Amino acid sequence: MRLFLFDLDNTLLEGDSDFAWGQFLIRKGALERQEEEEKNRRFFAEYEAGTLDINAFLAFQLAPLAAYPRATLEAWRAEYVETVVRPMIPASARALVNRSLAGKDSLTVMITATNSFVTAPIAREFGIPHLIATIPECINGEFTGRAKGIPSFREGKVNRLEEWLEAQAIHWGNFTESRFYSDSHNDLPLLEKVSHPVAVNPDPALFKVAKAKKWEILQIRHNNVARTASL
User: Fold this and answer.
1) What is the signed CA dihedral for 3, 7, 13, 19, rounded to 10 degrees?
2) Whole-model pTM above 0.90?
3) Which residues are tagged catalytic?
4) What is the pLDDT of residue 225?
5) Which pLDDT band, with edges at 50, 70 and 90, does 224 fall under?
6) Are 137 and 158 in contact (CB under 8 A)?
7) H or E element, residue 171
8) Which residues of 141-157 are buried (b: 16+ CB within 10 A; e: fewer)?
9) Whether residue 223 has pLDDT greater than 70
10) Angstrom distances, CA of residue 32 to CA of 16, 24, 35
């Protein structure tokens, strides 16, 4: 059995789905632009530096879900996927995922720190059957603005994946090959866990590690095929 793991933001998407969702809500008048963008810039700088407080970020990221009825959020989400997300998907990203889905005896999973409300329809858009994402807490059908369980971030991605595999009665020894595609140095714990780490559109810190370790490096953008970068 082969395991294919895909990060989402800036890996399969040419951009960040959570940032794009926030921008979409600003255009809907659901969020205040200046406050949203100032906090986004601060959190992104911390993310790039590897100093992000994931709990503080999730309090910010999930707050809009608690501010509006579920039916309103779902209507907005459908419009967001159609008008914002689909244009962010390079054909080369779809082709890369499709190759994993076409393989015999393979398991394909999207694994992302972005919450599952935003990312579940994106996984479906790619045809990826399994999603591991940060879970927004929900009570009586409505979101609370809090996260449930372990966030799918840094070491949390490894923990969540291993919990999920255990629930499927699968362990690492079942895999003849495991691949993880990611753009971020924050994903190094999981990249170092798999047998075949792949740096996709890597940030500078990940590029440096990938080059030193001779990992595969892919550049995926609109209007090109997924191609291996020169080491």
Assistant:
1) 160
2) yes
3) 7, 9
4) 56
5) low
6) no
7) none
8) eebebbbeebbbbbebb
9) no
10) 19, 11, 6
